[in-house]
Amino acid sequence: MKLPENLEQMLAGQPFSAETAGLSAAEVRIYPDSVLKAEPRSEKAALHVAMLRWMHGRLPVPEVLCCENDAEMQYLLMSRIRGQRACSPYYLERPKLLAKLLADAMQQLWHTDLTDCPRVCTLDDLLEAGEKRVRAHLVNTDDPEIFGDDGFYSPTKLLNWLRENRPESEPALSHGDFCLPNILLEGESVSGMIDLGDACVFDRWYDIALCWQSLYRNLNGYYGGAVYSGWDPMLLFDALGMEPDWDRIRYFICLDALF
């Protein structure tokens, strides 16, 4: 990767490793005290930087150390947050503690003052973006829990169902991809939130749904790992102090399947 001169000077001689977790097409390098994300220039990439700057000081998110652009790429250098991913065996073996910490992270997001937040999304926005992906044949249909004999026969069918079954909105600051690898923990506290490229004001049930799905899959060996006992789905909702709304949870899991 050819870096802008300013970043080359800042990072000269520092060892790094490539980040391979996640589904993003961006190139990510992990340095001893920083993280570099290089991706094509876009409105979404610029909003990611704006959101990080707005969230820093309000929430445990990376600090923007430098952001450079050339004709094609955006290069974002962020501070590195220490901690274990919430999907680490240590926390998966302690489901009650894990549920509490995930609930803490969500509550931090939801209690953030939304004044001047640079990115606000509505369900219409996401359905419109989803429609573009359906038309461009970009939707991954490999998930048997969404598509197939027991699900929707096609992304178009899914999109139509989402349009016809819209829930009432419950606006809140959303992580945008609230899955276990994106929440960092230390001991009995939340040390950070990462991979915030989709963070925005949206709907708190979107975070709940993605968190629930990530918990279920990580604890039940969906990704090829161990199967953990002692998991009760109500642990998350007890920690949140609320009852599960399974219709909303299913809706937002299905919405996420478009992306």
Overall residue-averaged pLDDT value: 94
From the 3D structure, determine the CATH topology of the largest domain.
Answer: Aminoglycoside 3'-phosphotransferase, Chain: A, domain 2
CATH architectural category of the largest domain: Alpha-Beta Complex
- CATH uppermost class of the largest domain: Alpha Beta
Largest beta sheet: what is the strand line-up? Answer: 1-2-3-5-4
Overall, the morphology is: globular
Please state the CA-atom Rg, rounded to the nearest Å.
Answer: 19 Å
How many domain units?
2
Strand and helix order: HEEEHEEEHHHHEEEEHHH
Report the uncertain regions. Answer: none
- Measured by DSSP, the beta-strand proportion falls in 15-25%
The largest sheet is: 5 strands, antiparallel
- End-to-end distance: 27 Å
